[in-house]
């Protein structure tokens, strides 16, 4: 059941990377040594580099939905390097694109290197390559949040329950969580990082971060791909959040469902990525807000050329302004 007002909704399901944090700059900065290494990539624009990365990442996410995101980032870096080697005509020192668990292929490569007498140099090269892949996978703590995100989240939290649904792993997200709670830069984060770290063990299916002593988190609930077992644009994460909201009135409050309404009618998806968030939200019958970050050069085209969002703003601050205008008008 569609609504004409933002404030008819009770909770927001946020994408993080691309919407609240500068995913594109984080990826490009992390990829730069690799892009500089191979002639085929030196002519790429920012958009071309991100699209090449996104194509590999999307394939791996569909293939390995339970792989931790930091490991998936590392594997994406590895596969992208193999493709750049091929495009650049460099067949030397290949690292292979085997995934963890393909022990037969790894053993075969090792045996071949040993018998040829070139094992030492090949192993050193492979070790350096693997270090680069791992470092890229661990780069999320360096990704900045957008300057308007922190203040806008505080404003929106006065009117909605805020939920994170992100294609990330728990450990990597804690750094971004701290910045979104006390940032926008590390200079203003005063709490220990443990305050924004997923509890282990956790007594709930998802994390209720505001229950952590000392937490300044604006989020009522956090669900990562590690929690849901899938990556967006798969529907699983959205469906899990909707079911959780229905089952936990003590957390989400009275959703105020009128006759004929469902939980999805009270949920609002807020995201930058059209294919990752707006497409599945639309398919599930949810309304959504497109945060059309003007710096973004990727994920801003609907794959079928449709308009699947209900509202569009260029910043999160503009969304907060619109909500406060509605609230003022009602009162």
Describe the structure in your own words.
This protein is of the alpha/beta class. It has two domains: 6-22 and 144-330, Rossmann fold; 24-141, no CATH class. The chain has helices spanning 23-37, 39-42, 46-63, 69-87, 103-116, 119-137, 149-156, 170-182, 225-228, 236-247, 249-252, 274-283, 316-330; strands at 11-14, 161-166, 221-224, 267-271, 287-291, 311-313. The protein has a six-stranded parallel β-sheet with strand order 3-2-1-4-5-6, sandwiched between helices. α3 (46-63) packs across α4 (69-87) and α7 (149-156) packs parallel to α13 (316-330). It is globular and about 70 Å long.
Keywords:
about 325 residues; alpha/beta; Rossmann fold; 6-stranded parallel β-sheet; hydrolase activity
Mean pLDDT level: 90
Helix percentage range: 40-55%
Low-confidence stretches: 91-118
Using the coordinates shown, work out and report the CATH topology of the largest domain: Rossmann fold
Number of helices: 13
**CATH class category label of the largest domain:** Alpha Beta
CATH superfamily of the largest domain: HAD superfamily/HAD-like
Into which percentage range does the β-strand content fall? 5-15%
Order of helices and strands: EHHHHHHHEHEHHHEHEEH
Q: Measured on Cα atoms, how large is the radius of gyration?
A: 22 Å
The tally of strands reads 6
Strand order of the largest sheet: 3-2-1-4-5-6
GO molecular function: hydrolase activity
InterPro entries: HAD-like_sf, HAD_sf, S-2-haloacid_dehalogenase
Biased composition (Low complexity): 111-127
Region (Disordered): 111-132
């Amino acid at each position: 059941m569609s609504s004409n007002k933002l404030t008819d909704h009770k909770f927001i399901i946020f994408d993080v990377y691309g919407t609240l944090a500068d995913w594109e700059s984080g990826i490009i900065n992390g990829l730069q040594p690799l892009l500089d290494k191979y002639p085929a990539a030196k002519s790429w624009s920012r958009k071309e580099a991100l699209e090449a990365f996104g194509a590999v990442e999307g394939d791996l996410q569909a293939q390995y939905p339970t792989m931790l995101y930091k490991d998936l980032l590392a594997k994406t870096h590895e596969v992208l390097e193999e493709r750049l080697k091929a495009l650049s005509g460099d067949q030397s020192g290949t690292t292979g694109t085997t995934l963890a668990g393909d022990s037969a292929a790894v053993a075969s490569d090792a045996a071949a290197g040993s018998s040829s007498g070139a094992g030492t140099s090949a192993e050193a090269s492979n070790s350096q390559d693997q270090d680069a892949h791992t470092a890229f996978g661990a780069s999320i703590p360096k990704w900045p949040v957008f300057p308007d995100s922190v203040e806008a989240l505080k404003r929106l939290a006065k009117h909605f329950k805020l939920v994170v649904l992100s294609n990330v792993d728990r450990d990597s997200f804690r750094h971004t969580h701290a910045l979104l709670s006390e940032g926008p830069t590390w200079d203003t984060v005063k709490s220990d990082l443990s305050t924004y770290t997923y509890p282990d063990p956790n007594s709930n299916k998802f994390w209720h971060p505001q229950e952590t002593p000392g937490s300044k988190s604006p989020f009522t609930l956090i669900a990562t791909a590690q929690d849901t077992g899938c990556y967006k644009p798969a529907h699983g994460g959205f469906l899990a959040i909707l079911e959780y909201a229905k089952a936990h009135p003590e957390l989400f409050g009275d959703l105020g469902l009128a006759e004929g309404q469902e939980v999805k009618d009270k949920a609002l998806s807020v995201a930058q990525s059209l294919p990752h968030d707006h497409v599945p939200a639309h398919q599930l019958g949810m309304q959504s807000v497109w945060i059309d970050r003007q710096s973004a050069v990727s994920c801003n085209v609907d794959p079928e050329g449709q308009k699947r969002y209900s509202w569009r703003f260029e910043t999160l601050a503009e969304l907060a302004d619109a909500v406060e205008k509605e609230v003022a008008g009602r009162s």
